Known about the structure:
The protein is globular. It is an alpha+beta fold. It has 9 helices and 15 strands. The strands form 2 sheets. Strands 7, 8, 9, 10, 11, 12, 13, 14 and 15 form a 9-stranded mixed β-sheet that branches. It has helices at 3-19, 42-46, 64-77, 86-99, 143-147, 170-181, 224-235, 247-251, 283-296, and strands spanning 22-25, 28-31, 49-57, 60-61, 105-112, 129-136, 149-155, 186-191, 194-198, 202-207, 210-213, 240-242, 255-260, 264-271, 274-275. It starts with a helix and ends with a helix. A hairpin with a 3-residue loop joins strand 13 and strand 14. The chain folds into 2 domains: 21-136, 2-Layer Sandwich (D-amino Acid Aminotransferase, Chain A, domain 1), CATH 3.30.470; 143-296, D-amino Acid Aminotransferase, Chain A, domain 2 (Alpha-Beta Barrel). The structure holds N-(5'-phosphopyridoxyl)-D-alanine. The site of N-(5'-phosphopyridoxyl)-D-alanine (PDD) has 14 residues, from helix 7 and strand 13.
Amino acid sequence: xxxxxxxxxxxxxxxxxxxxxxxxxxxxxxxxxxxxxxxxxxxxxxxxxxxxxxxxxxxxxxxxxxxxxxxxxxxxxxxxxxxxxxxxxxxxxxxxxxxxxxxxxxxxxxxxxxxxxxxxxxxxxxxxxxxxxxxxxxxxxxxxxxxxxxxxxxxxxxxxxxxxxxxxxxxxxxxxxxxxxxxxxxxxxxxxxxxxxxxxxxxxxxxxxxxxxxxxxxxxxxxxxxxxxxxxxxxxxxxxxxxxxxxxxxxxxxxxxxxxxxxxxxxxxxxxxxxxxxxxxxxxxxxxxxxxxxxxxx
Length: 298
Ligand code: PDD
């Protein structure tokens, strides 16, 4: 081989490695290609684990503490202990941001009940698996937020404990895929004639200036973005009514939007093919997006 080709090749590989993410697996940082867990991991075999997705803006974690409060609750509900101290978990988040030079995007972290012979009941003396990685996304200047997005409705096929942020995400995967097939951004799940939430977001409509969203219960995930939105809306005099709504009410709404850590406030301009509020992001939604973004960028 021409030695110049070899030098180029080695250089390209090195660059490839340098450009790959650094991930975290059970106490160690490594290139993403080396980040592996056992085929016996209970997350893989049983979806026996929980997770959090925390937004990063300007290299800083957004609403980190509420995410950790929710994680604590999820762990308690599935009878798991913290895999490490709270300080260590925060250090992992910060170190992943630092090593990956993450400006905007999110940190994903997952805890499972560890790996053991396949047996449904809890294994004894098994160490939990803790993994973390970053993902880049332009959260602030998001093109979808300028135009607004489409959603479809699908039946809610999930289990009865949606308040737990479980890694058991097959129903949301199928819902999101149905949305993608229909050219939509998200699927709103419907149970007993009422919208529960999106496959990975909370759901809202606006009618006569008032924001309407389902109250938290075992039927939905208590969104961290939702919680922040409530506080900011109150401060800015935007009224929120907590009640479930039907798809028909949504079709007739003035505005609609969704919230999540990966989208903040995302305007919705079409639901099941029906245009909402003239097909443009509405004024209440735009104001809420602005105030939520301003808070995230503080
Ligand atoms: N999803 N509802 C569901 C079912 C969710 O999965 C999420 C978050 C939310 C919004 O929660 P928060 O505002 O705390 O992000 C509501 C994350 C982003 C995900 O799975 O990627």
